[in-house]
Please model this.
Amino acid sequence: MKRIKESELIINREGTIYHLNLKPGDVAENVILVGDPGRVPKVSKYFDEVIKISQNREIVAHTGKYNGRNISVISTGMGTDNIDIVMNELDALVNIDFDTRQIKRNLTRLNIVRLGTSGAIQTDIPINTCAVSSHGLGMDGLLKFYASQDVIHPDLSEEFIRQTQWHPDLPYPYFVECSKELFEKIGVGLISGITATAPGFYGPQGRVLRIALNHPGLMNEMQKFHFNGHRIINFEMETSALYGLGKLLGHNTLTVCAVIANRALNTYSGDHNQVIDDLIKLVLNRLCG
Model:
C-alpha cells in the first residue's frame, strides 16, 4: 500500500496535523464548521462538556459532548481555499494512519455541517431567517483541480452558463449537491435552494466600491436563473468546496446559513446575534438529537 510522503501529509513534532493542530482522536464524527473563530465558543457553550480545545492561526477547535454524543466545532476562516485545508486535514485525521502514512482499510464517514452567514439574492427571503443549501454553485474553480467529474452536475453548469451569459474569462462554474441524509435531518422547514459560493466578498458577489466589474449584471442574471425547479437563493464563500470535497472524500456535508442581508432589497440586519444563536441551537439539536 502506498505510503504518503512527508511533504504531502505534514505532521508536526507533537503528532498533530499541520494546520488544524489536532491529533487523530481529537475530532468527533459530528462536526460543525464556522468561519469566525469567535463563533466557536458561542457554539461550544451549549455542549454538556468541552474535552479538547486547540487553536492555530484562524483555526480554533473545541471537542466535547452534546446530548451524550461526541461533537466538534471548528473555525475555518473565510473562503474555499481554507475549506480545502480543513476538509483534507479532517479526513486525514480519521482515515489515514499517521504511523504508517497509509490510508486505512476501514474508512470513517464524518457528518460535517457548516453554520454560517449569507446574503439572500431573492426578494422573498427575509433577513434574520435561516436557509439551507441544496447545492453549492462553485464560482471559484477549486474543484476543477480534483478529479471531480463524478460529483458535479454538468447539466446545471451548462444551463447556468447559458442563462447568465457567463463571462468566458471567469472560472468554469460547477454545481455539487448536499448530503441528502443531513438535509432530511437538519434542513426540514427551512428556506432551501442553491447557494452561490464566491471567491471573494466584493467583486465576485457583485459589490462595487471603486473598481468596475467585468460582468456587472451577473447578480441580476443569477436572480432569474431557474432550471428543473432549482433557483439560486444566496451568496457566501465556502459551500461549493465543502460539498465537492465532502462527496470526493465520502463525508456527509450540509450548509445552513443565517440570512443577514438581502442584496435584492438592499437591506442588512442591524443585529443578527439572535438569529445566529437560534440557528446554533437548531443545528445542535437536529445533528445530535
Observations:
- The chain has one domain: 30-287.
- The chain has a mean pLDDT of 96.
- The domain at 30-287 is CATH 3.40.50.1580 (Rossmann fold).
- The CA atoms of residues 32 and 73 lie 5 Å apart.
